Amino acid sequence: MEDEKEIENEVNGSEIFKEFREYSVVEFFKKNRQMLGFAGKVRSLTTIVHEYTTNSLDACEEAHILPEMMIKVEDLPDGHVKVTIQDNGPGIPQSHLGKAMGMMLAGTKFHRYMQQRGQQGIGGAGCTLFSQITTGKATKMRSGLGDGKVYECEMKIDVKNNQPLITNQSEFMGNFRGLRVEAEFAEVKYDKSEHGVYEYLKRTAMANPHAQITLIEPTGEKHVFQRVSDKIPEKPTEIQPHPLGVTTGDLIDIAHRTDSRKLSSFLSNTFSRMSSAKVEELAKLVPTVNFEKSPKDLKWPEAEAIVNSVKTLKWIAPPTDALRPIGSDQIDKALKNILAPEFVSVSERKPKVFRGGIPFMVEAAIAYGGNSGRAKADESKGGDIIRYANRVPLMFDGGSCAITEAVKNIDWKRYDIKDFDNAPVSVFTNFVSVHVPYTGTGKQAITMEDEIVEEIRYAIMEVARDLQVYLRGKVREMDKETKKKIIMRYVKELSMDLADLAGEGAPADIEKKLANLVENKYEKIEGDAEEAGKVEGVKEDEENEKEE
Ligand SMILES: Nc1ncnc2c1ncn2[C@@H]1O[C@H](COP(=O)(O)OP(=O)(O)O)[C@@H](O)[C@H]1O
Ligand SMILES: [Mg+2]
Q1: 319-358: per-residue pLDDT in tens?
Q2: Residue 147 domain flag
Q3: What is the pLDDT of residues 90-140, one digit of tens each?
Q4: Are 354 and 267 found together in one domain?
Q5: Residue 316: what pLDDT?
Q6: Same domain, residue pair 208 and 61
Q7: Would you say the CB of residue 96 lies under 6 angstroms from ligand 1?
Q8: Which atom of ligand 1 is the closest one to the Cα of 122?
Q9: Domain residues for 273?
Q10: For ligand 1, atom 18, which residue shows the shortest CA distance?
């Protein structure tokens, strides 16, 4: 009887699956907006500004334009926040504006393996969506290609179908070139904390000295981060992936998209360092896979076997010429401009490789004094870790980032910084790679892989050493000054006594002579001390550690 009762209550499978339907990527992100960085009021606003500014910088770089951006944040009476962003970039043609800003995963260049800030094609449309779901409003856009025509429209997203909904279109004659976006948001807040928009743009300016960035705060206060370099970063180039950096999933994706007709030619055409001799070697290792077949028919187990065999072969390291660092002279200029520090040093290091096949490069700098360091509640300064991936500031999730880990692993006392958390220093680190291994979809932290953490550590140690030399010099200078003051105090007394004893010569003359004597001696002492400092030197920590 018990059993029968249960059978009565059972629900039929087709009943359950009545509710089952496909849903669009926009619906997914509407539910999981934290995955786009829309979590917390301050963070959400920073994310919005981040998405628009990275797009502007990318577009200007590609079009070889010196970027000029204006970002305005206004508090509206109803509690909404209005964000206006305008750039002088290439603009977006009318035919593409809908896809770029009103459709997810559609308007991007995701398939290109090159070093760009945007990689996913959800940033722009993500903001359009966030505005619409928090305020019900459409985003206003103006685009000009510099051909005398200006296009304007308002845009929402059809959430169910992942399609742009464009209204109020107009076109008129004008000189405007670039993109202007005006959107309203709720559930966001402007503040000046270290996670806020001001700090984000300041950091953006530090890593992009070629950009002119104007911020107008809700109070009406205007901040201009001045361009200090007219050097437009070199256009990023597309590169071929290295076989060792490819996962099974990647291999299948690329194989199914290719125009190559045979698996063998696909492999040699797609990957760097994959000569036809290498393909033959590989074919011998996986005899079960037919290298003559179409790459479109590549199955998971076959791709997996290929990826596993790739790992057993010897490969030439990947080419590194596609990496686009900021450059030490540019970083130096930018930090001096924004932090007005007492001392700056920038590292110069060679590219490295992680996971055997992905080239990367670390740029590190240290700034001391002036406006360096993080302002603390009591207005004193503490050590500040300024993190970037391909020039984009990483503002959140610092605790799980390879850069923070590297800074923590440094024995700062060794560099005469007694307590990093209470020192007026800023440590600037830019991780440069075509593939940045982020820890999550928020793209705010770099995974702590050993090779990465180590390289970052060495780069920072390099500049920490320079700071140490500077600080030691400063201490010596202070010691000298104190001693000199004490001696000089006696000079006056001594010269009067001497004049008295000898019964001739004016005390003032003797004082002058004595003072000169002391000055000259000091110059010599100073020279000697400097020499001694050099001989004592600061050892090459990295080399030492490797020997240990
Ligand atoms: N300010 C802009 N100027 C020119 N093109 C832009 C601008 N903003 C966005 N785009 C275009 O729209 C596309 C989609 O942007 P987005 O959704 O943020 O994706 P992603 O930045 O990942 O490529 C960009 O790839 C670019 O082609
Ligand atoms: Mg983007």
Answers
A1: 888 899 999 999 999 999 999 999 999 998 999 989 878 8
A2: yes
A3: 999 999 999 999 988 764 554 566 666 665 667 899 999 999 999 999 999
A4: no
A5: 86
A6: yes
A7: no
A8: 17
A9: 243-310
A10: 123
pLDDT tens-digit map of 210-265: 999 999 999 999 999 999 999 998 877 778 888 988 888 889 888 988 889 999 99
Residue 10 lies in a domain: no
179 lines ligand 1 (CB under 6 A): yes
Distance 166 CA to ligand 2 centre (A): 20
Residue 458 maps to which CATH number?
Answer: 3.30.230.10
The total number of structural domains that make up the chain: 4
Burial, 371: exposed, middle or buried (Cβ in 10 Å; 0-12, 13-18, 19+)?
A: middle
Cβ of 102 closer than 6 Å to ligand 1, yes or no, is no
Q: Which atom of ligand 1 is nearest to the CA of 51?
A: 18
Q: Does residue 52 belong to any structural domain of this protein?
A: yes
Looking at the fold, whether 182 and 251 belong to one and the same domain comes out as no
CATH number, position 279 = 1.10.8.50
CB of 108 within 6 A of ligand 1: the answer is yes
Q: Give the nearest ligand 1 atom to 56 CA.
A: 1
Atom 25 in ligand 1: residue holding the nearest Cα: 108
Is 67's C-beta closer than 6 angstroms to any atom of ligand 1?
no
Question: Is residue 233, in this structure, part of any structural domain at all?
Answer: no
DSSP states of 163-189: EEEEEEEEEEE---EEEEEEEEESS--
Cα–Cα distance measured from residue 95 to residue 222, given in angstroms and rounded to the nearest whole number: 35
Pairing type for strands 384-389 and 425-433 reads parallel
Residues 335 and 362 occupy one common structural domain: yes
Determine the Cα–Cα distance for residues 140 and 181; give it in Å rounded to an integer.
6
Cβ-count burial of 529 within 10 angstroms (0-12 exposed, 13-18 middle, 19+ buried)? middle
Of 222, 227, 226, residue with least CA distance to 73: 222
User: If you measure from the C-alpha of residue 278 to the centroid of ligand 1, how many angstroms do you get, rounded to a whole number?
Assistant: 38
125 CA → ligand 2 middle, Å: 9
